[in-house]
Design a protein that fits this description.
5 helices; alpha+beta; two-stranded antiparallel ribbon; 28% helix; 145 residues
């Protein structure tokens, strides 16, 4: 392809690494949570991580989901470590929450902060409790006193 046939404008895209796609956290996300995650990434421009804004009403309109579903999706994404609330919004001042995408690096006043990828630490809860504290064996002393 010659230079005259190349596109001059850069297209924006989001990477979905296999490690993320195969993670327990990603596979446990609801469809609405994935849609909200993708919508948040469309608002990320490469330098605004920590200031990515998406209100619940915008998510409802853009994604065709109910307010309750949108709210649950934000909570789910935050609990599983895909997003973190950077600055809370204010309904009376018409200001949306500002989110940090944990899969992207962030520019701070102290320099560039690498992606935290908090989703890697998430584990599903079991009936017996969190996986990091298994039920003690009936034989022998408990492992985690």
């Amino acid at each position: 392809m010659g230079k005259s046939q190349r596109k001059t404008d850069k297209e924006q895209y989001t990477t979905l690494p296999y490690a993320q796609l195969k993670s327990e956290a990603w596979r446990s996300l609801s469809g609405a949570a994935i849609k909200v995650w993708l919508e948040l990434h469309t608002r990320f421009n490469g330098g605004n991580n920590g200031n990515v804004r998406l209100s619940m009403n915008e998510a409802v309109k853009a994604l065709g989901i109910s307010k309750g579903t949108a709210q649950r999706a934000f909570v789910e994404l935050e609990e599983k470590g895909f997003i973190a609330l950077q600055n809370p919004g204010n309904w009376y001042h018409r200001k949306a929450h500002e989110w940090r995408l944990t899969t992207k690096r962030m520019q701070t006043s102290k320099g560039i902060q690498v992606a935290t990828n908090d989703w890697q630490k998430w584990r599903a809860k079991t009936k017996d409790g969190p996986p990091e504290y298994p039920a003690p064996s009936p034989m022998g002393p408990p492992r985690y006193p």
